[in-house]
Amino acid sequence: MADLGNAKNTAEIIKKYGFSFQKRYGQNFLIDTHVLDKITDAADVGKEDGVIEIGPGIGTMTQRLCERAGKVVAVEIDKELIPILGDTLSGYSNLKIINADVMKTDMGALIRDEFEGMNVKVVANLPYYITTPIVMALLEQHLPLTSITIMVQKEVAERMQAGPGTKDYGALSLAVQYYADTYIAANVPPNCFMPRPKVGSSVIRLTVRKGSQVSVTDEKLMFALIRAAFNQRRKTLVNAVGNSADLGISKEAVSNALAGMGLDGNIRGETLDLRQFAALSNALT
Ligand code: SAM
């Protein structure tokens, strides 16, 4: 079976099937063996693991995952790729390919049905047009996942990993870090993909935490406060939250809560860490 992790073999497959890349599906296929190894190493996949791959493309990374994992389930939206995958991955009996939109797939049911008794890891070179919705859907459902190792746009990886007071810090950083520990395993230049994307990419591993890092009475309120704080980044937290019609919380209540936490009333949301957002939310519940 040909190793797809290089430009020549990928181009041959594309030609053989007359496949045309769909921009709307974020199709940039990996053509670099080292990068493929970096992703599978960062995901730390072994025979005891079940792997969900989102967007297998022509099966380049899927090949490697099948070699290392106990079982792989790959979810691909583009029906044109299904016969190609049937060909490129015909040698693997531990693989199931599902032709579906991952955003419309019941991941909880998929995990229950396909991976009983296994550690489940998500590994993917994600389509960049829906990176954040996919990651947040995986995390917010509290799925029994060990880790999520993904190729994303470099600046998105930096936002996921950022801490308070930095320019990349925002609602995405707090949302991801609430559920997982982050680790950027590699930066990947555009020439490792076919076709080349316009942006740089990074491999980031999100290790899903078993328990929560902070104790929050009302998760929804905490995330609404975070969104309000970063929607009006330049404003003080008191004004950003107090001005939010959705929240209906008075400026006075925010001031009092901040005072109770020993924080200055003029503080901006971008300086608060996750623990402080949790404490603020608990004080306002
Ligand atoms: N894994 C392959 C690789 O690394 O060469 C392809 C990665 S490509 C960046 C993204 C893949 O996700 C494409 O195969 C695309 O068709 C698929 N895709 C896009 N949107 C999807 C969705 N909503 N659900 C499932 N797959 C999707």
Question: In brief, what are we looking at here?
Answer:
The chain is of the alpha/beta class. The protein contains 12 helices and 9 strands. Residues 25-30, 54-57, 60-61, 75-78, 81, 101-103, 125, 127, 130 line the site of S-adenosylmethionine.
How would you describe this protein?
By secondary structure, this protein is of the alpha/beta class. The protein folds into two domains: 7-208, Vaccinia Virus protein VP39 (Rossmann fold, 3-Layer(aba) Sandwich), CATH 3.40.50.150; 219-284, Orthogonal Bundle (Helicase, Ruva Protein, domain 3). It is built from twelve helices and nine strands. The protein has helices at residues 7-17, 33-43, 60-68, 82-88, 107-114, 131-140, 154-161, 171-179, 219-231, 237-242, 251-260, 274-284, and strands spanning 29-30, 49-54, 71-76, 95-99, 119-125, 147-153, 180-188, 193-194, 201-208. The strands form two sheets. Strands 4-3-2-5-6-9-7 form a seven-stranded mixed beta sheet, sandwiched between helices. A two-stranded antiparallel ribbon has the order 1-8. The mean pLDDT is 96. S-adenosylmethionine binds at residues 25-30, 54-57, 60-61, 75-78, 81, 101-103, 125, 127, 130.
Write the layout of secondary structure elements.
Layout: H1 7-17, E1 29-30, H2 33-43, E2 49-54, H3 60-68, E3 71-76, H4 82-88, E4 95-99, H5 107-114, E5 119-125, H6 131-140, E6 147-153, H7 154-161, H8 171-179, E7 180-188, E8 193-194, E9 201-208, H9 219-231, H10 237-242, H11 251-260, H12 274-284
Parallel strand pairs: 2-3, 2-5, 3-4, 5-6
Antiparallel strand pairs: 1-8, 6-9, 7-9
Helix pairs in contact: 6-8, 9-12
S-adenosylmethionine binds at residues 25-30, 54-57, 60-61, 75-78, 81, 101-103, 125, 127, 130.
